[in-house]
Amino acid sequence: MTDAAASVWLVVGLGNPGPTYAGHRHNVGYLVTDELATRMGSPFRAHKSGRADVVEGRLGAPGTPGPRVVLARPRCYMNETGGPVKQLAAFYKVPPERIVAVHDELDIPFDTMRVKLGGGDNGHNGLRSMRSSLGTGDFYRVRVGIGRPPGRQDVADFVLSDYSSAERKILPFQVDKAADAVESLITDGLERTQQNFNS
């Protein structure tokens, strides 16, 4: 087995835990990791750290053993995401350049996305916490667009509110496409993924 095949990727869905937050725009990272867990055929289970739920397996086409992947959903609020991510990265021996953060992005319109490596946190508390705990921002990001709030609605209220009824009809397709982007990033690399998914 090659080093690449033996290496592990850590895919982190950013969100807030519990049913109160489940449908919020800020929790789209959780929805994408749920879809990936379904594709891997395993439910989330508590990690021994007690600070995250994880799924361990492989992603890729059936019959071809793809890269080893750990899906993670931190069990803390968004602004404390970095601690559990750092613990998981140490436990699975994953360097920052094999970490993928899946998160909501205000500056991208709903139903579009961007994939990139590195960058700032753009005011996103989850990314800020990860950058602080990992000591670097050089991890991948699958940025799922939620758009800006309408009118004068406060940004915090907007991200912590449910999708509109019109958006909820499109959301499953957006989540599915974002999961495809994560798979592509891990199996095909950044450049091809950007060509195919950066709308």
From TrEMBL:
InterPro entries: Pept_tRNA_hydro (IPR001328), Pept_tRNA_hydro_CS (IPR018171), Pept_tRNA_hydro_sf (IPR036416)
NCBIfam families xref list: pth (TIGR00447)
HAMAP family: Pept_tRNA_hydro_bact (MF_00083)
Sites where the protein binds tRNA: Y21, Y77, N79, N125
Database matches in SUPFAM superfamilies: Peptidyl-tRNA hydrolase-like
UniProt-recorded name of the protein: Peptidyl-tRNA hydrolase
GO molecular function: peptidyl-tRNA hydrolase activity
Subcellular location: Cytoplasm
Site annotation Discriminates between blocked and unblocked aminoacyl-tRNA: residues: N16
Coiled-coil positions: none
Keyword field: Cytoplasm, Hydrolase, RNA-binding, tRNA-binding
EC number, UniProt record: 3.1.1.29
Catalysis: reaction(s): an N-acyl-L-alpha-aminoacyl-tRNA + H2O = an N-acyl-L-amino acid + a tRNA + H(+)
Highest taxon above the source species: Bacteria
Alphabetical list of Gene3D superfamilies matching this protein: Peptidyl-tRNA hydrolase
Species, as recorded: Nocardioides caricicola
Keyword tRNA-binding tagged: yes
Self-association and partners: Monomer.
Residue(s) at site: Stabilizes the basic form of H active site to accept a proton: D104
Similarity comment: Belongs to the PTH family.
Biological function: Catalyzes the release of premature peptidyl moieties from peptidyl-tRNA molecules trapped in stalled 50S ribosomal subunits, and thus maintains levels of free tRNAs and 50S ribosomes.
Gene that produces this protein: pth
UniProt cross-references to Pfam families, sorted A to Z: Pept_tRNA_hydro
Active site: H26 (proton acceptor)
